[in-house]
User: What shape does this take?
Amino acid sequence: MRSVSRHVMLACLATATAVGVLASASACSSSTKTAPGSSAKAGGTYTFWDPYPQFDATSDWARLVSSCGTQAGVTVKRTSLDTTDLANKALLAGQQGNSPDVMLVDNPVVSTLVEAGILNKTSDLGLDTSAIQPNIIGAGTVDKSAYGIPIGANTLALYYNTDILAKAGVDPASITDWASLTAALQKVKAAGKKGITFSAIGTEEGSFQFLPWFWGAGADLTKLDSAQGDAALSLWKGWAGAGLAPNDVLSNTQTTSWQEFATGQYAFGENGTWQLGNAAKAGFKYGVISIPAQAGGPAPAPTGGEFVTVPVQKDSSRYATSKKIVSCLTNDTNLLATDTTLSYIAPVAAVQTQQVAQNAALKPWVAAVAAAKGRTSNGLGTKYPIISEQLWTAVQGALSGSKSPQAALAAAQQTAASKTG
Assistant: This one.
C-alpha cells in the first residue's frame, strides 16, 4: 500500500461492477497471449500482468520476471498497468475468457476477483503456502482457501524525529499506549515543535491510516459505531482540536503527510515501509516505533502488498508452467531481492531474518507486519470497500467539525449496513 491509486480502486471496483462499466471491450486491448484454447507445450508465450509501471524493461524486477519464464521454458510477455486499470481489466478479461496466465494484484482485490470466479486456489495448483505468515496470507484467503502467494507486505508505523523528542524530554521507548503518546505530543508542543501528521483524506488512504487506531481500540469493521470506534475517532479529533495534529490532515495523502514530516518540524509521522528510502534522505535522525494500541502493545495495522495469482484458463494444461513461474517469483532467494527493491517485508520468517541481517532498520517493520492484518480478512471480502468508504466519510465528518465522532460513525454504520445487507 503506497499510493492513492492502490486504494481508490477498491471503491471503483465495487462501483464499476455494479453499473457495468467493465463492459467496454476496448479495456483489454493491450492483452495478447497464446489463445486460451491452445495446449501448453514447451516454449511459447505466457502473459504476466503487474501493477509496477515504475519498473521498465531494464529493471531488476522485469529481468526477474523474464528469467522465471526462461527457467520454465517459455517467454513471458509482461504488461504493467496502474493498479486500478489492472484490476478493472482483470475483471473484463475474466468475463471474456482471456485472462493473463499469471497476475500480480493488490491484496484487497483478491476477494473481488475470487467472487467473479477468475482465480484458482493455490491448493488446486499444488502451490505450498505453509511457510507464509497466517496474517499475510489471510489477505488473499476466501472461505479458508488461499488464492495467491504474497510477494511481500508493507504496513504502517510511526516515524519519529530523534532530535525533537530528545529536546522535548521524550523517550520513544516510553510510548506504549495512547495516553503516553498524547503526553509526548503535549511535551513536543510545549517545546515549540509540531506533534504528529497523518493522512485522513476522504479516500482509502484515509481509512488505511485510521485502521490501526480503530483496531487498536478493539473496534470491528462490522460495527463502526461501537464505543471502541468512537474512542479512536475522538482521539484523532482531540489531537487536531488541541493543535497536536495539523488541520490539513483532512486533505493529506500519505505522500503529502510524509512531506510534512520530512520538513523536520514534526515529532511523529504515520507512514509506511515504502518511505524508508526517503527517511534516509530526510537530513535528520529518525527512528520507528509501532503504532500503539489504546491499552498498550502494538496496534494491528493493515497489510499492504500484492499477491501472485493464477487466473482461470480454458486450457488447464497451462497451469503447470504458470505454477513454475509463480514458484520462481516467490522462492526465498527471489523474495529477498524483490522485497529489498520494493521496501516490503517478506511473507516468510526465513527471508525476514535475512532482511534484518542486511538492514537492521527493518526490525521494527518486521514486528509491525507480524501484528498487521488484512483489510478483507474475517470474511469481509467484497464488503470491505463499501465499509471503508463509510469509515473515511465518518473520519472526514468528525475532523471537519460537521458531526461529532459518535454521530459520524452512527451514520456510517447505518449506510454500510444497508449496502452490505
